[in-house]
Amino acid sequence: MRPFVLGAATALMMLAGTAQQAWACRADQVEIKGDFGTVRFRVEVADTPASRAQGLMFVRQMPQMSGMLFVYERPESVSFWMENTPIPLDMIFADATGTIQRVHAEAIPFDRTPIPGGEGIQYVLEINGGLAADFGIDAGDVMRHPAITQNMAAWPCGAP
């Protein structure tokens, strides 16, 4: 009977490990959860002043479920524009907990008009224009990514 108990315990640990991996954050993905369910985007991370300044400028096309996550060292007032950006974008502004505070839909290519995110923004996800509305992403939804400080995260890595 003892080998079966060890086998069952091993199987349970493997299942737990598989479940943990399913909820593990990945540096190349952002997940968003809201009333619509959950959606995942493959992302590049812009977490330095130079990479944030470059952003998606000069990118002519982006795969449908892809984007760029801008990460700031601390919450602040942020503003974006579309100079040298030839594709329409949705900008999703989130606070230090990963809670979405504002969604700016369909930013106009090449437009130099400032797009304010508001105060206390630490993360901005840019995705193809129109996707936020297609999925129903809105203020109050939550995102997760390893860059979000886990002890502050509204939806931490490892949580279902």
Describe the fold and architecture.
The protein is an alpha+beta fold. It has three helices and seven strands. It has helices spanning 2-22, 49-54, 131-135, and strands at residues 29-34, 37-46, 66-80, 89-94, 100-107, 115-128, 142-144. A seven-stranded mixed β-sheet has the order 5-4-6-3-2-1-7. The protein is globular and about 40 Å long.
- Structural class, from helix and strand content? alpha+beta
Q: What is the C-alpha radius of gyration, as a whole number of Å?
A: 18 Å
Give me the count of strands: 7
State the helicity in percent bands. Answer: 10-25%
The average pLDDT score comes to 89
Spatial arrangement of strands, main beta sheet: 5-4-6-3-2-1-7
The main pleated sheet reads as: 7 strands, mixed
Note the beta-strand portion. Answer: 35-45%
- The low-confidence runs, each spanning 5 or more residues with pLDDT under 50, are 1-21
Q: State the distance separating the first and last CA atoms.
A: 34 Å
How many helices? The count is: 3
N-to-C series of helices and strands: HEEHEEEEHE
* Overall body shape: globular
Question: Which descriptors apply to this entry?
Answer:
160 residues; 7-stranded mixed sheet
